[in-house]
Amino acid sequence: MNIFECMRVAVRGLISNKMRTMLTMLGIIIGVAVTILVVAIGEGASARVQQTVADLGTNLLTIWNGPPSMHIAPAAALAASSGTSATSSNGVPVPPQAPNRLTLQQAEFIQQNFKQTVAAVSPIIRGNVQIRMGGTNATTNLQGVETTYPFVNNASVELGSFFTQSDVDGNAKVCVVGETVVNNMTGSPNTNVIGRSIYINKQEFKILGVLTPKGTGAWGQDQDDVILCPITTAMHRILHRNLTVDFMGVRCTSVKMMPLATQQIASYLRVEHHLQPPFPQNDDFEIHSATEILQRQQSITGTMTTLLSIVAVISLVVGGIGIMNIMLVSVTERTREIGIRKAIGATPRDILLQFLIESSTISLLGGIIGIALGVTGAVILAKLGGWNVIVDPSSVVAALVVSAGVGIFFGIYPASKAAGLHPIEALRFE
Amino acid sequence: MSDVDSKQVQPMLSLREIRKTYVMGDQVVNALDGVDIDIYPGEFVAIMGPSGSGKSTLMHIIGCLDAPTSGSYLLDGIEVAEMDDYELANVRNKKIGFVFQGFNLLARTSAQQNVELPLVYGRRKDRAERAIAALEKVGLGNRLDHKPNQLSGGQQQRVAIARALASDPLIILADEPTGNLASLQSEEIMQIFQELNDEGITIVMVTHEPDIGRHCKRTVTIKDGHLLRDELVENRVMAADLLVEMRQEHDLLHTA
Predict the structure, then answer these.
(1) Which end of chain B is more exposed for a tag (fewer CB within 10 A), N or C?
(2) Which residues of chain B have pLDDT under 50?
(3) CA–CA dist B40, B96 (Å, integer)
(4) What is the pLDDT of residue A209?
């Protein structure tokens, strides 16, 4: 009996047991769908981060306040790092001292003193603000920046102009808006808003320009839902913070200069912040490069992908065991049929092939349905959730091969059991 | 034995000192205890005997479904007692046609596909034509697409006979072929066998019914694993004649 003939028999057998076939396939369907979806999400996330880093340029450093643990739970982190519990003499916990903040003066100093390594510094202060234009209200992200911002952050103004040094020096109430803000305020991203007024926390600002759209960022945020204004204006008029900044971008003179720049800035900040060794454990700031962010994100994605792949593999194995179980039932149920086939001349190989093809057809069909579901899920995530997902054709091929393999592997035992049946005993089976 | 013996024809199958021993727990059962039989081309042999006599075991060995514990079995001049599973499957496929008591057709499979099955395993290209020809021979040329559950018992058995005929075997083996059928249908089946035998096809049949045995040309009686009698049938029953009588009775009953 040839392969084609076997397949016809197998498919006919499966069709006559639709419900059972579907339930058996379910394990494979879920396993394959999850794999396809996870790989698509992982690939999409990596691609987006790579794009972001490429947009920003690889010679960008960012300096942040404090290690991440201090952002989340400063008291616990400080207690852990000092090695003693922070309590007063009568046992009442004392709130720890706030870590040193980065300041405008430090940004100025870095810009002025490390000319060999640093091309420009862009200190940024940010906060959420209420905006109003005409009768429309919204909240958005306000960033107070220096005139170095477009250069350091690879940003540009599409319409109008950026504010000038004199605007910064004079705490001018001027701003540059992102495309999403324009859209939210006027109902269309193409409305000309240059020269119009916008109220930021009830203060009137004049719009000087509109930023070139950047799209979705590495972490899925909308990079165009932003208003930029002079850093001094943001500090003194809106956010009321005296001279401390949230982070700064540092554009180095070249990629080669980045380690030296990092070293120079770190030494300067340690002295400035009166820090004691050991370093970098006691640093109250962090310096990251864009590539470092990329690597970190990729390792997170990698870990997630590995974990979910393990889940998918387990699901495939469980699905395979389900197939084996059903095939064993099927062999027992069809013992008589096997006996008839053997009596009229089927060789053990013919019977083996028949059941192997049946089991691999189940898992292959399950794989195909799983791929369809996974791809559909990815498309839905992309359309409705705005996720960046990339369905890699090689993962589809791998899913097909693996699901066929699962069917063959878990079909071998039941099929060889069927092939090994003695014709007379099989014929006598009731 | 039979009239062909004198013409010095080689036997189609020749069993010598065939033994089959089953071990059941600590008991050893000799199902066959040294059986010698020769069957020549064109014969129509009934293997008779009470249940437990070993006739089914003999049938299985003749049909290459089972191997004897010892002894020699020449089928068409070839020793089959020591063949492996693949060679035996091939012999069953090419040289033997089986007809079973319980018909043993594949459910949910049309008559034609059932008849094609041995040809599929035999990798024959002309299987559709052969299957249709075989079904026409047993009078089911108009039932090609019927599934077994759409056919009467007698019709199912005729499909089974067509399946046995399809690959042009040396011999047709029938194991209680009328055991599940009413007397009229039994007679119809026996008529087909007699017609096939008249065309020169060798048939070996296992039965415990003496009436059925009398349709054959020769009866071999087995008891306790031994050959008890081997005789030619006198006053052979011709199914065609009997059928005429039976149908007349049947018509009388229904017209009365």
Answers:
(1) C
(2) 1-2, 4-6
(3) 15
(4) 92
Cα distance between residue A187 and residue A136, in whole Å: 10
Nearest Cα of chain A lies from the Cα of B248 at a distance, in angstroms, of 38
Tell me the CB-side half-sphere exposure of residue A356, using CA atoms within 13 A. 14
Does one domain contain both A222 and A341? no
Q: Does residue A195 sit at the B interface (CB-CB below 8 Å)?
A: no
Does A165 contact B at CB distance below 8 Å? no
Domains along the sequence of chain B with CATH: 3-255 (3.40.50.300)
In B149-178, the residues whose Cβ lies within 8 Å of chain A are 163, 167
A327 and A200 within one domain: no
pLDDT in tens, A152-169: 888 889 888 999 999 999
Under 8 Å CB pairs connecting chains A and B tally to 63
Shared-domain flag, residues A23 and A120: no
Asked if A340 reaches chain B (Cβ–Cβ under 8 Å), the answer is yes
| Phi, psi torsion values for B83, nearest 5 degrees | -75, 155
State whether residue B122 sits within 8 Å of chain A by CB. yes
> Are residues A314 and A394 both part of a single domain?
yes
Q: Are residues A38 and A124 in the same domain?
A: no
Residues 6+ apart with CB under 8 A from B197: B42, B44, B203, B217
Q: pLDDT by residue (tens digit) across A323-359?
A: 999 999 989 999 999 999 999 999 999 899 889 988 9
Residues of chain A with pLDDT under 70: 1-2, 67-100, 218-220
Determine the pLDDT at residue B89: 92
Q: Tell if the CB–CB gap between B104 and A2 is shorter than 8 Å.
A: no
- B89 and A427 within 8 Å at the Cβ level: the answer is no
- What's the rounded Cα separation, in Å, for the pair B251 and B255? 6
> Which residues in chain A are contacts of B63 at CB distance < 8 A?
343
